[in-house]
């Protein structure tokens, strides 16, 4: 069973809006049984004070970053959300010093345990936390402290989640002026009923199950959408494939040829590398052979040279060279003729000392030519070497030219093949681009679709099982709540009787909670009000706040709330805070409300904290129980008023008309006009 | 941009490459035409001998150097013997006549065939007077160059006792000398500065800047050979006529040192023969100078070199101070790297020059 | 400027592949020797003439000219071209080239090589015509304008090599960056332009020349002539470094 807080003590220090009396004292207030009136005029800080009481419990967290939303979602969040900085600075913004040193401290009772909680008003930071006088260390890290605090509060409320604490605070404990309230907001009603009436573990399970259903539904829908897209693509692919067979044959043909050419190109690459090696080897051999030949032939020359120089010392070098070359190479350097025959002649002549240039006999010569004596053997050897060298050079030249030619032709072939590959690749790419879908693509799409459909089935099955679980849980819960219907209806009727003229009843129905985007809904117990109207016979079900007038709305909601509190706590006491509905009520209605509230406040250990503008004198009087019977009574009543005219920082109106306002208050308290 | 210089060259060290580049100021000036190249080379050779005290020369006074297309052919006619590496060796150069290549490094040499004062005549007699000729007079410390041959004009250069220093003062000196001796009047200034036959009317040639640039480049090259390298902007499309000087830096690399931007101001545009020459207004000249300031400054900033703007004044009326013109003053004020600006007056006749106070 | 040439029978026969090769070699020899004359380093010893031919071949890309051979067999004693030598000897016989101080120097395996001092025979009446046709005189007379460029390049290179100390052009060739590259062993072919893909990679001498720019500021350029002279400095320093 849920426990609701009973505020016992409030202290506000160093907050510029509430300097207190004398100034600097702040506010120090003990909440006793019954009514506590926070009286003031517009702008003195009534809402601020009430909000302090709210924020003491919530800290810098709420159901959304902006606080309580207009309407709740079908599924509540798992965790409370950090307030946005603007909301956190709500108190700081109202004073010049940004509430830098301001602290609010509250003592609150839950059953037999008394908690003391204090927070900084500048940033809502938790300053201290004590249970039954003993201070509890909740940790140094801010988030940890709040988390630990929230756990504590959950324990004392006896709910499983701080989100449920917030729900209860907003829809049960704190009655704000302009909210539709649990009776009118289906989702809020469902959440609040769950939090209030279900045993805490069950309440937690239901919340979790609801979330599971919603997320499973979301996932299933997403996957279904994906599957649909793939299916479309596949249909498209299949239909265009029918037209594509000819082109793909062409493509296949090109591919085959391309493969063959690529293989050929690879083969040629290897071959070229080999041929390059071979032609380089051949070139090296050829160059060496050329050099060797020159050196071999020069060797022969050098042997003859020495001899010629001796023979013809005055012969010019150039001439000597001619003769030498002729003698050794068998080639006449002058005309290129073959001199083998003449060679023998000249050598013979030289042997005899005949001048090889002019043919003169030794006797005719001025300088005598001695016989040409050359080491025959050496010359022969050198000449043999030279001849071999010539042959070798010729052979290596042929080899070189052949390998170079072969290399050249393979290089040409490689060039041709490469050009063809390029052309063919280009054609294949073009064909491929023209083919809408290749068989491979269709297979891929089919596979993709299969997988997606499988995921979809899985997700749908998840959703179904989540829904089943939730239904089971809801079923368990329904019984609990429906059991309370009678009692709730009775209490409601009683409460409402005093507040509005019409006949109103609380009716239990089976609501249909919509948690998914689909058609399926979940049966949940719900309540609607039913009342008679001026222009219609019988009672009609009022389902939305627009179905009733504003004043009726607030009062019915109040009645409902009071009934909830009564039944949910089993009649245990709690503190209800209210900002009185003012603008919408007529004089009589105000009195009725006041009387109803008085009834609540007078009951047991209940505390009712009500803010009121002084214009509601009638309601104030009614809240206190009608006209005061004695001065002592008035004095006692005054002790139940947090008089913002005195305690709050005065505004212009107060400064100029304080006495008048005090008089109005007095007359409201006494009941005298 | 990938560093094209990063990969090492097999077997070649950076130090070897750097060492080779250090010779940049000492190698022949390939940018010059052969005649001028020869004169620069001979001057280098002679000055290096002079600066090391004329070792090995005995009492000789005069040396003659001729640029021959086939040094051996000419030399052998007179029995001249082979010479090589004149710059590196200390084989005597005075009292001798040489037939050399355009770098004055190799060729043929022989004893002077006649007395010093008969050389020119002898050369003419031998029909060698078309060969570029340089005569050295040790005692007078004079180098007499005749790039067009013995029959052509002569130019005198001092044989310097000390090698040139790469300093702004030396550049100043070189510019002054070139102005006085090679530009001042039509008879000494190079063709192309004045429109042929119309110098007295102060009609400039089609591209006087180019002619002056070539002249200056030759002078500066000759002056600073061995110490500084000179570069010329060759393309007219770039719109700049300049000479850039490089010298070796401390880090072993060459760096730009000085940039000389050349501009010409004139009274009229070029016109041929009897055609009327279109007038050039003062503000047009001022804009030319302003452009020169911009170009010199930009280039100086770009290459981290000191900029100079040399303005050659070909105007008939030189009274208005071009550097005081508002357009020029504004440009200078705007400039973050102000070039030093100088105006060099050139005259259309020798008498005008004399009237202006030039000897 | 092209001129049509009347070929006689002998000349037509010579236009076989080997005939053309022979003509090429002869033209090359004459151009080399003419350049040597211009620079005043003629007559040239055989070894220096071959060295000059090799350096001209390996450095032709500096003047953006195609290589003559693009390869050479690396041997002890420095670069040598048997086919060039054959044409030198023939030109001697034809009276276009003069030779003096002929001798034979021994080579390994009882081989020999001719040595001598070679220069153009300036007295030859055929020479001026040949030189003109080869672009060694006026550009207008050259049969192939490219030859005139080749000649100008050879004169530049000869001038640069004249700055090598003691005219040690043959030693210079052996310390040439490409010839001295240790990755190619003796008795193997150095290929720097014939069968290579990128001369800027395979011609080490060219790479060295390309590297000169690293020591100049950005924007500074070297003329082709300057590059040759700097490379000759590089070779000279290598010779002296030992």
Provide an overview of this structure:
Chain A is an alpha/beta fold. Helices cover 57% and strands 14% of the residues of chain A. In chain A, the strands form four sheets. Chain A has a six-stranded antiparallel β-sheet with strand order 2-1-6-7-8-9, covered by helices on one side. In chain A, strands 10-14-15-3-16 form a five-stranded parallel β-sheet, with helices on both faces. In chain A, strand 7 and strand 8 form a beta hairpin. In chain B, 30% of the residues lie in helices and 21% in strands. Chain B has nine helices and twelve strands. The longest helix of chain B is centred in the C-terminal third of the chain and has 22 residues. Chain C has one domain. Chain C is globular and about 50 Å long. In chain C, the strands form two sheets. A three-stranded antiparallel β-sheet of chain C has the order 1-4-3. In chain C, strands 2-5 form a two-stranded antiparallel ribbon. Chains in contact: A-C, B-C. At the B-C interface, helix 1, helix 3, strand 4 and strand 10 of B face helix 2, helix 6, helix 9 and helix 10 of C.
Keywords for this structure?
heterotrimer, B: 359 residues, alpha+beta, 2 domains, seven-stranded mixed beta sheet, five-stranded mixed beta sheet, 9 helices, 30% helix, C: 242 residues, three-stranded antiparallel beta sheet, two-stranded antiparallel ribbon, 10 helices, 12% strand
């Amino acid at each position: 069973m849920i426990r609701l807080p009973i505020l016992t003590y409030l202290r506000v220090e160093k907050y510029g809006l509430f300097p207190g009396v004398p100034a600097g004292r702040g506010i120090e207030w003990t909440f006793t049984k019954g009514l506590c009136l926070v009286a003031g005029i517009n702008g003195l800080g009534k809402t601020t004070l009430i909000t302090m009481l709210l924020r003491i419990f919530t800290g810098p967290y709420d159901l959304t970053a902006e606080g309580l939303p207009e309407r709740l979602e079908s599924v509540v969040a798992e965790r409370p959300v950090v307030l946005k900085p603007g909301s956190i600075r709500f108190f700081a913004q109202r004073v010049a010093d940004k509430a830098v040193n301001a602290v609010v401290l509250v003592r609150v009772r839950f059953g037999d345990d008394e908690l003391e909680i204090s927070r900084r008003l500048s940033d809502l930071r938790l300053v201290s936390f004590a249970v039954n006088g003993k201070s509890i260390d909740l940790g140094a890290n801010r988030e940890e402290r709040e988390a630990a605090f929230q756990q504590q509060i959950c324990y004392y409320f006896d709910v499983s989640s701080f989100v449920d604490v917030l729900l209860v605070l907003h829809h049960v404990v704190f009655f704000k002026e302009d909210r539709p309230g649990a009776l009118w907001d289906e989702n809020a009603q469902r959440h609040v009923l769950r939090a209030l009436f279900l045993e805490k573990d069950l309440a937690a399970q239901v919340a979790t199950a609801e979330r599971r259903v919603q997320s499973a539904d979301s996932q299933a829908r997403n996957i279904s959408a994906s599957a649909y897209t793939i299916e479309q693509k596949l249909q498209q692919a299949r239909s265009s494939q029918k037209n594509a067979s000819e082109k793909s044959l062409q493509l296949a043909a090109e591919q085959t040829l391309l493969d063959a050419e690529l293989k050929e190109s690879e083969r040629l690459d290897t071959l070229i590398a080999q041929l390059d090696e071979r032609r380089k080897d051949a070139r090296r051999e050829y160059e060496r052979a050329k050099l060797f030949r020159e050196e071999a032939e020069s060797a022969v020359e050098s042997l003859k040279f020495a001899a010629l120089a001796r023979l013809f010392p005055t012969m010019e070098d150039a001439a000597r060279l001619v003769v030498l070359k002729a003698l050794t190479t068998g080639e006449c350097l002058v005309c290129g003729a073959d001199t083998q025959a003449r060679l023998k002649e000249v050598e013979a002549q030289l042997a005899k000392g005949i001048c090889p240039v002019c043919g003169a006999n030794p006797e005719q010569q001025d300088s005598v030519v001695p016989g040409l004596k050359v080491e025959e053997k050496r010359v022969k050897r050198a000449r043999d070497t030279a001849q071999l060298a010539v042959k070798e050079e010729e052979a290596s030249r042929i080899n070189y030219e052949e390998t170079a030619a072969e290399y050249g032709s393979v290089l040409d072939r490689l060039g041709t093949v490469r050009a063809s590959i390029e052309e063919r690749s280009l054609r294949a790419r073009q064909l491929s681009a023209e083919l809408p879908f290749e068989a491979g693509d269709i297979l891929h799409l089919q596979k993709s679709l299969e997988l997606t459909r499988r995921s979809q089935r899985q997700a749908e099955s998840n959703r179904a099982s989540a829904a089943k679980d939730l239904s089971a849980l809801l079923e368990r819960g329904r019984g609990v709540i429906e059991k309370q219907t009678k009692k709730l209806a009775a209490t409601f009727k009683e409460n409402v009787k005093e507040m509005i003229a019409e006949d109103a009843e609380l009716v239990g129905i089976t609501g249909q909670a919509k948690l998914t985007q689909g058609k399926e809904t979940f049966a949940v117990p719900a309540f609607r009000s039913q009342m008679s109207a001026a222009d219609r016979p019988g009672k009609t079900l009022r389902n939305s706040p627009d179905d009733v007038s504003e004043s009726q709305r607030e009062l019915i909601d109040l009645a409902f709330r009071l009934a909830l509190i009564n039944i949910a706590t089993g009649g245990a006491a709690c503190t209800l805070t209210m900002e009185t509905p003012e603008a919408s009520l007529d004089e009589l209605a105000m009195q009725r409300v006041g009387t109803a509230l008085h009834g609540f406040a007078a009951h047991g250990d209940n505390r009712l904290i009500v803010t009121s503008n002084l214009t509601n004198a009638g309601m104030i009087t009614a809240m206190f129980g009608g006209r005061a019977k004695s001065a002592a009574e008035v004095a006692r009543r005054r002790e139940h008023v947090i008089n913002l005219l005195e305690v709050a920082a005065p505004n212009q109106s107060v400064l100029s008309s304080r006495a008048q306002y005090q008089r109005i208050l007095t007359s409201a308290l006494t009941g005298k006009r | 941009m990938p560093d094209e210089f990063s990969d090492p060259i097999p077997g070649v060290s950076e130090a070897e490459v750097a060492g080779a580049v250090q010779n940049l100021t000492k190698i022949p000036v390939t940018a010059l035409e052969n005649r001028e190249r020869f004169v620069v080379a001979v001057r280098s050779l002679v000055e290096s001998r002079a600066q090391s005290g004329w070792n090995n020369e005995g009492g000789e006074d005069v040396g003659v150097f001729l640029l021959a297309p086939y040094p051996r052919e000419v030399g052998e006619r007179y029995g001249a013997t082979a010479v090589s590496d004149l710059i590196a060796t200390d084989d005597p150069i005075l009292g001798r006549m040489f037939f050399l290549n355009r770098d004055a490094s190799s060729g043929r040499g022989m004893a002077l065939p006649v007395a010093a004062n008969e050389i020119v005549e002898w050369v003419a007699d031998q029909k060698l007077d078309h060969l570029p000729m340089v005569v050295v007079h040790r005692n007078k410390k004079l180098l007499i160059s005749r790039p067009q041959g013995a029959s052509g004009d002569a130019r005198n250069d001092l044989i310097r006792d000390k090698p040139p220093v790469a300093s702004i003062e030396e550049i100043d000196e070189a510019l002054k000398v070139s102005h006085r001796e090679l530009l001042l009047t039509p008879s000494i200034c190079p063709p192309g500065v004045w429109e042929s036959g119309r110098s007295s009317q102060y009609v400039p040639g089609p591209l006087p800047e180019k002619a002056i640039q070539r002249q200056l480049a030759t002078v500066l090259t000759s002056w600073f050979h061995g110490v500084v390298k000179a570069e010329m902007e060759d393309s007219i499309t770039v719109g700049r006529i300049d000479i850039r000087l490089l010298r070796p830096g401390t880090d072993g690399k060459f760096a730009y040192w000085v940039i000389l931007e050349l501009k010409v101001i004139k009274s009229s545009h070029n016109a041929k023969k009897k055609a009327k020459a279109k007038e050039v207004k003062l503000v047009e000249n001022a804009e030319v100078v302003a452009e020169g300031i911009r170009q010199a400054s930009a280039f100086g900033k770009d290459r981290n070199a000191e900029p100079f703007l040399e303005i050659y004044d070909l105007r008939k009326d030189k009274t208005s101070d071009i550097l005081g013109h508002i357009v020029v003053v504004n440009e200078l004020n705007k400039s973050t790297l102000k070039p030093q600006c100088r105006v060099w007056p050139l005259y259309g006749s020798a008498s005008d020059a004399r009237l202006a106070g030039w000897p | 400027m092209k001129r049509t040439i009347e070929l006689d029978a002998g000349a037509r026969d010579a236009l076989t592949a080997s005939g053309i090769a022979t003509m090429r070699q002869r033209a090359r020899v004459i151009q080399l020797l003419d350049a040597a004359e211009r620079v005043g380093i003629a007559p040239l010893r055989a070894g220096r003439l071959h060295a000059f031919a090799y350096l001209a071949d390996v450095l032709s890309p500096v003047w953006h000219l195609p290589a003559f051979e693009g390869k050479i067999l690396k041997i002890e004693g420095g670069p040598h071209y048997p086919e060039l030598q054959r044409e030198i000897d023939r030109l001697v016989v034809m009276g276009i080239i003069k030779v003096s101080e002929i001798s034979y120097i021994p080579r390994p395996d009882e081989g020999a090589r001719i040595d001598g001092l070679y220069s153009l025979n300036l007295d030859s009446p055929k020479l001026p015509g040949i030189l003109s046709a080869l672009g060694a005189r006026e550009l207008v007379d050259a049969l192939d304008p490219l030859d005139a460029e080749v000649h100008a390049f050879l004169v530049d290179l000869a001038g640069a090599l004249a700055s090598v100390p003691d005219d040690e052009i043959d030693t210079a060739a052996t310390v040439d960056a490409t010839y001295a590259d240790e990755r190619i062993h003796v008795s193997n072919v150095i290929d720097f332009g014939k069968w290579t893909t990128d001369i800027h990679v395979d011609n080490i001498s060219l790479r060295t020349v390309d590297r000169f720019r690293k020591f100049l500021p950005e924007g500074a350029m070297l003329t082709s002539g300057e590059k040759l002279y700097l490379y000759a400095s590089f070779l000279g320093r290598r010779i002296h470094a030992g």
